[in-house]
Amino acid sequence: MESNAESLVEQYLTQLLQQRRYSPHTISNYRRDLGQLLNFCREGNRVANWQQLDHKIIRRFAIWRHQQGISGRSQQRELSSLRSFFRFLMTQGMLDHNPAQGIRAPKSAKRLPKNLDIEQTEQLLKINQTDPLALRDRAIMELFYSSGLRLAELVSLNINSIDHHSATVTVIGKGSKERMVPVGSKALEAIGLWLKARTKLLKDRDDESALFISNNGRRISPRTIQLRIKKWASHQGLDVPVHPHMLRHSFASHILESSSDLRAVQELLGHADISTTQIYTHLDFQHLAKVYDTAHPRARKRRKHSDKSRVE
């Protein structure tokens, strides 16, 4: 590839960051996806510049990535990144067509998100330690579960994002869309305790506006939150690996089990498309199926008969 190939990628990413206000996490994904295409073009495929790309080359790229073991879902994301980048090149007059248009990745089986049941959630959140980091971590996990926030949304919260009077949090979600989400009393209590201890970690940095900070006094990183939640799950005796998105899934499935209001859950989660939220109806059905198997007389008899058959 010519030397300006990477500079065009950086121009595109800068536009996404500054004009379309994509998150740093999304920018990192786009950079990685486009880097894979650059590597493919350089590894013996004799592609000197972006203008040489056509459907055949992109199709070969998709096959190459499939042979590397990439999942269908990841490949769909990669192709979406390429199509978006090629549209940018078209606006720059460097392409007269989109070579990734119409190319589809193989479909992956849709995996249901894992979530904690109510007892597991209570076990995780029952933290009795009172040091600043423990108070911070409990407040973080309570807020994840109380309001169903994404990791990036929680990291970006400032102190003034929480309104204790109205019991709400103002969140900047995907696409820089703002939404207001209720905050439960347990989460508000935990946040109040954390705010009293927060000054101990500031280290003379009174200008830091982040709600959650690390022990160096600056805004906490996503990776730190992931590691701390994993540590607490082990410390609290849970036998499953817990991550921030699992608490978001737990929030959604528990709300849906109680209310059956899919539209409300969509609004709370900040999903642009209700089809994204509908995956939680499968979780709800699993819950109902377990209740049925436990409670229905015919289901119990069928299970007992099945158990007897296995013994015989």
Report what the structure shows:
With 312 residues, the chain is mainly alpha-helical. The protein folds into 2 domains: 4-91, DNA polymerase, domain 1, CATH 1.10.150; 118-289, Orthogonal Bundle (hpI Integrase, Chain A), CATH 1.10.443. Helix content is 60%, strand content 4%. The chain contains 14 helices and 3 strands. It has helices spanning 4-18, 24-42, 55-67, 72-91, 118-125, 132-147, 151-155, 185-202, 222-235, 244-259, 262-269, 274-277, 279-295, 297-311, and strands at 162-163, 168-172, 178-182. A 3-stranded antiparallel beta sheet has the order 1-2-3, with no helix packed on it. A hairpin with a 5-residue loop joins strand 2 (168-172) and strand 3. Helix 2 crosses helix 4. The longest helix is centred in the N-terminal third of the chain and has 20 residues, at 72-91. It is elongated. The protein starts with a helix and ends with a helix. Residues 301-312 have low confidence and may be disordered.
- Principal-axes shape call: elongated
Give the SSE string: HHHHHHHEEEHHHHHHH
The major sheet is characterized as: 3 strands, antiparallel
Counted by DSSP, the helix tally is: 14
Taking pLDDT < 50 over at least 5 consecutive residues as the criterion, the unreliable ranges are 301-312
End-to-end Cα distance: 68 Å
CATH level-3 fold name of the largest domain:
hpI Integrase, Chain A
CATH architecture assignment of the largest domain: Orthogonal Bundle
CATH class of the largest domain: Mainly Alpha
Strand content: under 5%
Domain count: the total is: 2
What is the CATH homologous superfamily assignment of the largest domain? Intergrase catalytic core
Q: Helicity, in percent?
A: 55-70%
How would you state the average pLDDT, rounded? 82
Per DSSP E runs of 2 or more residues, the count of β-strands stands at: 3
Q: Calculate Rg over CA atoms.
A: 24 Å
Structural class of the secondary elements? mainly alpha
The largest beta-sheet arranges its strands as 1-2-3
